[in-house]
Amino acid sequence: MGTLQNELPIVWRHDVENGIYEEARVGRVFNHKRPKRYPRAVVQASEEAHVICAVRLAVELGCRVSARFGGHSWAAWSVRDDAILIDLGNYHHIEFDEDKQIIIISPSTTGKVLADFLSTKSVMFYGGHCPDVGLGGFLLQGGMGWNCKNWGWACEQIAAIDCVTAKGQLVHCDATHHQDLYWAARGAGPGFLGVVTKFYLNVSPSYSNILSSTFIYPVSEYRKVLDWVVKIAPSFDEDTEIVSVACIPAGAPALSGSCILANFLTFKNSDEAARTALKSVPRAPEKQEAVEEVDEREDFNKPTHTDGREPPRSIITYVV
Ligand SMILES: Cc1cc2nc3c(=O)[nH]c(=O)nc-3n(C[C@H](O)[C@H](O)[C@H](O)COP(=O)(O)OP(=O)(O)OC[C@H]3O[C@@H](n4cnc5c(N)ncnc54)[C@H](O)[C@@H]3O)c2cc1C
């Protein structure tokens, strides 16, 4: 055990200054409501060998293993009492197999990093909407990515995984090898039975013209807006994602306070096709008569908020 410990970038609960342990325990957790759960140690893995070593150490110590990719689990599932927490935030791997049209990533790769990497390759992955979510946690729990209702769950694009089993063995899992683990990787979420070290993902051709149309209403109109969206969605154009969420729009000239929006984001290969799809959105419910159109951009090559700026958009309509 001593040798194993010497090889690992490990922070023990009782051996270090409290600040260092605290940072390792929750520093990368998105939710700032911190859990009162205390792992025995945190391994800050930067390579696959660290993961193998950490799992074997946990076996020797007889304690549980928990894992963290992007830290965006709202319930902070990665933080478990007396566990060896394996944090893969420092482990970075990304490569594209052009012949097989497969992208191979380490699990802490974020949607932003992947979208940036693929942006020059004419392909895309149906990743999550928030740029900083780890693809690992997103994929294991199913993954509601771009246009999920029409294109399917992101986890359906998992071609294979590499993972470290509970006995500390690194295995490759796909439709013909370790099928049980491959099956579980597509929906087991925090209940997954190993620690994933790589995902092999199918990619799809990207779109040259991605446009959106957003309708924003006072939140008091939520019933009308949701009824409208629910009625349209089942039969609307299949390359258009429809999302309705509550928001407080920044700098909205026509509305202030809580609002409800309906966003139509269409993925097409010509400007004309994109505009035609958006023009076919049935007439929005109006509270009064005022409609204001602002902000039109022509060039939307990346179907994601890749750089933390505003999402791709074309027309915003405030209905006041
Ligand atoms: C702001 C925000 C926006 C979101 N947007 C979307 C969205 O558009 N679509 C969507 O579907 N979801 C979305 N989610 C939910 C998100 O996908 C899940 O919370 C997901 O679990 C986060 O993944 P993570 O890797 O960042 O989190 P982590 O907390 O790092 O990981 C989540 C859990 O996955 C398991 N895990 C982590 N690493 C490993 C490993 N190496 N091996 C095995 N298991 C492991 C662990 O149980 C871990 O606790 C969003 C969440 C937030 C906070």
UniProtKB/TrEMBL annotation:
Family to which this protein belongs: Belongs to the oxygen-dependent FAD-linked oxidoreductase family.
Pfam families: FAD_binding_4
Name this protein carries in UniProt: FAD-binding PCMH-type domain-containing protein
PROSITE patterns: FAD_PCMH
Species per Swiss-Prot/TrEMBL record: Exophiala sideris
PANTHER family from the UniProt entry: BINDING OXIDOREDUCTASE, PUTATIVE (AFU_ORTHOLOGUE AFUA_1G17690)-RELATED, FAD-BINDING PCMH-TYPE DOMAIN-CONTAINING PROTEIN
Co-factor requirement: FAD
Region (Disordered): 279-316
Residues passing through the membrane, by range: none
Keyword match Phosphoprotein: no
Domain (FAD-binding PCMH-type): residue spans on this chain: 35-206
UniProt feature, compositional bias: Basic and acidic residues: 299-312
The keyword Flavoprotein appears for this protein: yes
Keyword annotations: FAD, Flavoprotein, Oxidoreductase
